[in-house]
Amino acid sequence: MGVSEFRTFNRPGYAKAAWNFSLSEQEDGTTRLVTQTRVLCLDEASRRRLRLYWVFIRPFSGLIRREMLRSIKSITEDSNPE
Protein backbone atom coordinates (compact mmCIF):
# COMPACT_ATOMS: atom_id res chain seq x y z
CA MET A 1 0.00 0.00 0.00
CA GLY A 2 1.40 3.39 -0.97
CA VAL A 3 1.22 6.56 1.08
CA SER A 4 -1.75 7.97 -0.82
CA GLU A 5 -3.71 4.71 -0.42
CA PHE A 6 -2.87 4.65 3.29
CA ARG A 7 -4.08 8.22 3.74
CA THR A 8 -7.37 7.65 1.94
CA PHE A 9 -8.12 4.17 3.33
CA ASN A 10 -11.29 4.50 5.39
CA ARG A 11 -12.96 1.08 5.54
CA PRO A 12 -15.05 0.51 8.69
CA GLY A 13 -13.85 -2.42 10.79
CA TYR A 14 -10.19 -1.56 10.37
CA ALA A 15 -7.58 0.57 12.08
CA LYS A 16 -4.59 2.32 10.57
CA ALA A 17 -1.27 2.44 12.40
CA ALA A 18 1.88 4.43 11.77
CA TRP A 19 5.20 4.08 13.55
CA ASN A 20 7.83 6.76 13.38
CA PHE A 21 11.32 7.37 14.65
CA SER A 22 12.75 10.75 15.55
CA LEU A 23 16.36 11.59 16.23
CA SER A 24 17.63 14.58 18.17
CA GLU A 25 21.17 15.55 18.97
CA GLN A 26 21.77 16.06 22.67
CA GLU A 27 24.02 18.67 24.28
CA ASP A 28 26.55 15.99 25.22
CA GLY A 29 26.96 14.97 21.55
CA THR A 30 24.85 11.81 21.79
CA THR A 31 21.75 11.20 19.73
CA ARG A 32 18.38 10.43 21.27
CA LEU A 33 16.13 8.04 19.35
CA VAL A 34 12.42 8.07 20.14
CA THR A 35 9.66 5.93 18.64
CA GLN A 36 6.00 6.80 18.50
CA THR A 37 3.05 4.72 17.35
CA ARG A 38 -0.24 6.23 16.29
CA VAL A 39 -3.40 4.24 15.66
CA LEU A 40 -6.60 5.51 14.07
CA CYS A 41 -9.62 3.25 14.45
CA LEU A 42 -12.00 3.78 11.56
CA ASP A 43 -15.17 3.01 13.50
CA GLU A 44 -16.38 2.20 17.00
CA ALA A 45 -16.29 -1.58 16.42
CA SER A 46 -12.62 -1.48 15.45
CA ARG A 47 -11.92 0.74 18.48
CA ARG A 48 -13.46 -1.86 20.81
CA ARG A 49 -11.50 -4.69 19.18
CA LEU A 50 -8.26 -2.72 19.41
CA ARG A 51 -8.82 -2.06 23.12
CA LEU A 52 -9.30 -5.78 23.76
CA TYR A 53 -6.29 -6.64 21.60
CA TRP A 54 -4.17 -4.04 23.41
CA VAL A 55 -4.94 -5.56 26.83
CA PHE A 56 -3.13 -8.71 25.74
CA ILE A 57 -0.43 -7.34 23.43
CA ARG A 58 0.70 -4.25 25.36
CA PRO A 59 3.32 -5.94 27.59
CA PHE A 60 4.84 -7.72 24.59
CA SER A 61 4.74 -4.60 22.45
CA GLY A 62 6.75 -2.74 25.08
CA LEU A 63 9.29 -5.56 25.28
CA ILE A 64 9.69 -5.65 21.51
CA ARG A 65 10.14 -1.88 21.32
CA ARG A 66 12.72 -1.80 24.13
CA GLU A 67 14.65 -4.69 22.60
CA MET A 68 14.63 -3.01 19.20
CA LEU A 69 15.94 0.25 20.71
CA ARG A 70 18.59 -1.69 22.65
CA SER A 71 19.71 -3.40 19.43
CA ILE A 72 19.93 -0.10 17.56
CA LYS A 73 21.98 1.38 20.40
CA SER A 74 24.33 -1.60 20.43
CA ILE A 75 24.80 -1.58 16.65
CA THR A 76 25.47 2.15 16.51
CA GLU A 77 27.88 2.08 19.46
CA ASP A 78 29.77 -0.86 17.95
CA SER A 79 30.08 0.88 14.56
CA ASN A 80 31.05 4.28 16.02
CA PRO A 81 33.99 3.74 18.40
CA GLU A 82 35.29 6.84 20.16
Description:
This protein starts with a helix and ends with a helix. The protein has one domain (3-79). A two-stranded antiparallel sheet has the order 1-2. The chain is 51% helix and 27% strand. The chain is an alpha+beta fold and 82 residues long.
Short summary of the structure?
The protein is of the alpha+beta class. Helix content is 51%, strand content 27%.
**Helix/strand-derived class?**
alpha+beta
List low-pLDDT spans: none
State the share of residues found in helices, binned by percent: 40-55%
Contiguous helical run count: 2
How much strand?
25-35%
Radius of gyration: 17 Å
As for the number of domains, it is: 1
Biggest sheet details: 2 strands, antiparallel
For this entry, what is the oligomeric state of its chains? single chain
Strand order of the largest sheet: 1-2
List keywords for this structure.
single chain, 82 residues, alpha+beta, 2 helices
List the helices and strands and how they pair.
Blueprint: H1 3-8, E1 15-25, E2 31-41, H2 44-79
Antiparallel strand pairs: 1-2
